[in-house]
Amino acid sequence: MQATADTLQNAAPAGRSRVGRPDWARDGRDWPNRAHSRFVRAAALRWHVQVAGHGPVLLLLHGTGAATHSWRDMLPRLAERYTVVAPDLPGHGFTDQSNNTGMSLPGMARGVADLLAQLELTPSYCAGHSAGAAVLAQMWLDGLLAPRAMMSLNGALLPYKHAVSPLMAPLARLLARSPLVPFLFSMHAADPRVVERLLRGTGSVIDADGAKFYARLAARSGHAGAALTMMANWDLPNLQPRLAALHVPVLLVAGLNDRSIPPEDAGRLARILPNARVQKVAGLGHLAHEEQPEDFVRLMDDFFAAHAA
């Protein structure tokens, strides 16, 4: 079911509740797969992480501005065959925000590795959406992760080719320094039409439940500020030269309707990565796995089974 303005209006908080971090008691009251949620101390942060199922460990990492709700429909199905581990990245959802170093790509990689160590779980497989795929690649290249196979879902692994892209990181750094900017954004995001336009801008049409949780997080200044800080500290140009050393089998899934990450990036990556192949999906956008979760569960099953020990 497509999200509507009425659905988003019901999801958006009002007044001073927009200030600060999302609150578990209030914002997490009906959080997807809440029964599998736990809070864990690692890397000097309090992490929100969902752990479910039995079998080989599968690590799922969401993208910028999202949280564990991104896997809401996939996690229960995957938990039938895997021990699924899905954290909120630092500053996102219900996980504490780290300092600027911890919000960088290497910093997030170390943070997730510390969380896994605290949980005493070693992933056999992993999948990352958008920026989550970059965190996984960084972890592998830094020796923090050694899965049998990795899946990138519309992965943000390459620097943007757009003409203004060199200006984006400095602009994000400038905006992230001001606590007023996230607050103003969260006020703006309280208008259901704003989140509706943002989601439509990804090229995806997701159900009303998914849109509700995006709206709820976007209306919290702490979550919005963390997304800005993450972008301000993201350094894909330094990651790109190292990708040729990423020898793990990688499936690069590209939604052909993705308006956030150019679908042709998957082809560029396939020419860089030594053990990668591309899977194109027609009619789906940047949030493809939220549009067709059952199809992506099957895709993961088939790919990971082909690389089982």
Keywords:
single chain, 309 residues, alpha/beta, Rossmann fold, 8-stranded mixed beta sheet, 14 helices, 8 strands, 40% helix, disordered N terminus
Provide structural commentary.
This protein is of the alpha/beta class. The chain has one domain (5-305): Alpha/Beta hydrolase fold, catalytic domain (Rossmann fold, 3-Layer(aba) Sandwich). It is 40% helix and 15% strand. The protein has 14 helices and 8 strands. Strands 1-2-4-3-5-6-7-8 form an 8-stranded mixed β-sheet, with helices on both faces. Strand 7, helix 12 (264-272) and strand 8 (276-281) form a beta-alpha-beta unit. The chain is globular and about 45 Å long.
SSE topology sketch:
Layout: H1 5-11, H2 24-27, E1 37-42, E2 45-52, E3 57-61, H3 75-78, E4 83-87, H4 105-119, E5 125-129, H5 131-141, E6 149-153, H6 165-176, H7 180-189, H8 192-200, H9 208-218, H10 221-232, H11 236-239, E7 250-255, H12 264-272, E8 276-281, H13 288-291, H14 293-305
Parallel strand pairs: 3-4, 3-5, 5-6, 6-7, 7-8
Antiparallel strand pairs: 1-2, 2-4
Helix pairs in contact: 1-8, 1-9, 4-5, 6-10, 7-10, 8-9
